[in-house]
Amino acid sequence: MTARRNEAYRTLAELSVPSEPGNERLAMEEVAGTVEGLGLPERTLERLKTAVAEATMNAMEHGNHYREEAPVFIEVSASEAELSVKITDEGSGPPAFTQETPDLEAKLEGMQTPRGWGLFLIKSMVDEMNVTGDEGHHTVELILHLDDKTSTSERKEASDGRTAP
Amino acid sequence: MPQAQVTMEVRKVNDGVSVIDVKGELTAFAEGVLMDAYNQASDGGVRAIVLNFEGLEYMNSSGIGLLVTLLIRVNREKQRLLTYGLSDHYQNIFQITRLDDAIGIYGSEEEAVRAADTT
Q1: Chain A partners of B5 at a C-beta cutoff of 8 Å?
Q2: Is the ipTM of this complex over 0.85?
Q3: What are the chain B neighbours of A117 within 8 Å (beta carbons)?
Q4: Run of H or E including B19
Q5: Looking at chain B, which residue has its C-alpha nearest residue A162?
Q6: How far apart, in whole angstroms, are the C-alpha atoms of residue B5 and residue B57?
Q7: Which of A68, A130, A141, B9 could hold B21 in an S-S bridge, CB 3.0 to 4.6 Å?
Q8: Can you give the residue ranges of every domain in chain B?
Q9: A68 pLDDT tier (thresholds 50, 70, 90)
């Protein structure tokens, strides 16, 4: 992955959305519009939109605590090989994600909360997810590999025997 | 808190099966609407609930959590939960989360109701 990260990235868009409930849809549509020219397969685009929405919702809720004056910043950039979407909030400390791997049976038996699917969904939708932070910001970076028609996450599902329709 | 951007109409298709037509967004804000629809759909000892997702515009992780909450209630009442009308993307999410192990996915209302009637 290091070689990939040394490639030249060009910034496609820098966006911001106010931290208001429901604005994750605005973010995902803006990002979808930004990457329109990359020719992503429909299925990959839908997965990216879900990952962007989940990461933005987490940033608005847990990073910015839905303070309207604290926007979520989104930077979309691409190299020949990768698409990167960085989602930054104004939170401090480690980003708040439920770390427990969701297990449907455990949830149905009351051993886990019914919620807590966000991080799991993001990781399932993109090829890489990196989380960084300092005293005043958290950034979640979502990466899609552009050099494969089928993304790594989709191939992983297929090899697990969980081929999507 | 914003209002739920969703409507859910309940139709009883026979003595044992009710359909909930979901139109709009399944997010945390849909909780009250979904549980009200479930209560209405369960009226009269219904044994299977079919969720019609043909009108689903958006579902997020909170919506998935709501479906798990609904499943817990359905299982407690010894009912079954089935669905049809899911897009390929949301079928994929049902597979990833393994919701498809607990909620039968069908291609049409006719298939879902037939499955509910025969098991």
Answers
A1: 22
A2: yes
A3: 61, 64-65, 97
A4: strand B17-26
A5: B95
A6: 10
A7: B9
A8: 6-118
A9: confident
User: How far is residue A121 from each of residues A9, A139, B79, measured CA to CA in Å?
Assistant: 26, 17, 28
pLDDT tens digits, one per residue of B75-118: 999 999 999 999 999 999 999 999 999 999 999 999 999 999 88
User: CA A121 from chain center: how many Å?
Assistant: 9
Question: By C-alpha distance, which of B43, B54, B117, B42 is closest to B83?
Answer: B54
Domain chopping of chain A, boundaries:
10-159
Q: Scanning every residue of chain A, which has its alpha carbon at the shortest distance from the alpha carbon of B67?
A: A114
Task: Return the residue matching tokens 């808190």.
Answer: B1
DSSP state of A117: -
CA angle B17, B18, B22 (to 5 degrees): 145
Contacts of B58 in chain A (CB under 8 A): 25, 53
Closest-approach residue (CA) in chain A for B100: A104
Rounded (10°) CA dihedral B67, A21, A98, A113: -30
Interchain proximity B71–A108, CB inside 8 Å? yes
Q: Which tokens is A52 given? A: 């962007």
Architecture of domain A10-159: 2-Layer Sandwich (3.30)
Question: Which CATH code, of 3.20.20.70, 3.30.750.24, 3.10.20.30, 2.10.260.10, is assigned to B6-118?
Answer: 3.30.750.24
**Residues of B with CB below 8 A from A159's CB?**
none
Answer whether residue A164 shows pLDDT above 50: no
B77 phi, psi to nearest 5 deg: -90, 5
Residue B61 has pLDDT above 60, yes or no: yes
Closest Cα to residue B103, out of B50, B61, B56? B50
Residue B115, both tokens: 């499955």
Q: Tens digits of per-residue pLDDT, B77-86?
A: 999 999 999 9
